[in-house]
Design goal:
The chain is an alpha/beta fold. The protein has one domain: Rossmann fold (3-Layer(aba) Sandwich), CATH 3.40.50. It has a 7-stranded mixed beta sheet, sandwiched between helices. Strand 2, helix 1 and strand 3 form a beta-alpha-beta unit. Helix 1 crosses helix 11 and helix 4 crosses helix 7. The protein is globular, with a radius of gyration of 17 Å.
């Protein structure tokens, strides 16, 4: 299948994988920084952004689509970094020995059933807001104080965002044709792999979607991985602290 992507920089390949309902632009705050060291390939996952949907969804199907994509690009064992759904995919790729290293930012799959239901309900609520007319949404994004109130579930530091960023993210949630099938396919998902490549699992201390206590489960299940806390960051740490996220990813790729 055709996967849409943005490519910048040169060096060893680094593939960036966004979360459910997002698109490659999730990585804009760190893309150019990472491109100083790597050939960076930020993808629209199947059914999100401009990439077409898969016929069938499940973690194995998405992993296969990505490994086929690597082969089409002529990229062998790239480094990979992912957020949320993309973090789980990064770990699955590492467990399958498809990548040179994996950085997982708040990866899905270390949840309990109630925590998973909570996370999806929060994202579904934000997705519903994406269907509202822009004049009803933008007043809640105009000032730092209003962004703290309206966007605090997704970002740890929403006051520092350009107001267009959370609005575009809501529109991305709305347009994600793969959202419902991915959410449905995730109902029984738990991460159970054991990566062979260097792995870093990083979690924002203010993540209100995949709660930071899930980081403790990841640490117990992946004792050989490096585990990092991202102070003050929410579920989308690339926006909250681009310099720190860049540092964490580059330390992993250097390993």
């Amino acid at each position: 299948m055709t996967i849409v992507y943005e490519r910048r920089g040169s060096g060893s390949p680094l593939v960036l994988l966004h979360g459910i309902g997002h698109r490659w632009q999730a990585w804009e705050p760190v893309l150019d920084r990472l491109a100083e060291a790597h050939d960076v390939i930020a993808v629209d996952l199947p059914g999100f952004g401009s990439s077409p949907r898969l016929a069938t969804y499940g973690m194995p199907q998405i992993v296969t689509a990505l490994t086929d994509f690597f082969a089409e690009l002529g990229v062998t064992r790239p480094h990979v970094a992912g957020n949320s759904l993309g973090g789980a995919l990064a770990l699955e790729l590492a467990a399958g020995d498809h990548v040179a290293s994996a950085t997982a930012l708040a990866p899905a799959g270390f949840w309990t059933t109630p925590e998973k239901g909570y996370a999806l309900s929060v994202l579904l609520t934000h997705r519903a807001l994406g269907f509202l007319p822009r004049p009803l949404v933008t007043p809640f994004l105009k000032t730092p104080k209003l962004r703290r109130i309206s966007c605090g579930m997704l970002y740890g530091r929403p006051e520092q965002l350009d107001p267009d960023v959370p609005y575009d993210d809501l529109r991305g949630l709305r347009g994600g044709r793969g959202f419902n099938p991915v959410a449905w396919a995730s109902r029984g998902y738990r991460y159970t792999g054991q990566p062979t490549a260097p792995v870093t699992v990083a979690w924002g201390t203010k993540d209100r979607i995949l709660l930071p206590r899930q980081a403790e489960r990841a640490e117990a299940l992946l004792p050989r991985a490096r585990h990092v806390r991202l102070p003050g960051c929410g579920h989308l740490p690339m926006h909250d602290d681009p310099a720190l996220v860049t540092q964490v990813i580059l330390e992993t790729t250097a390993a």
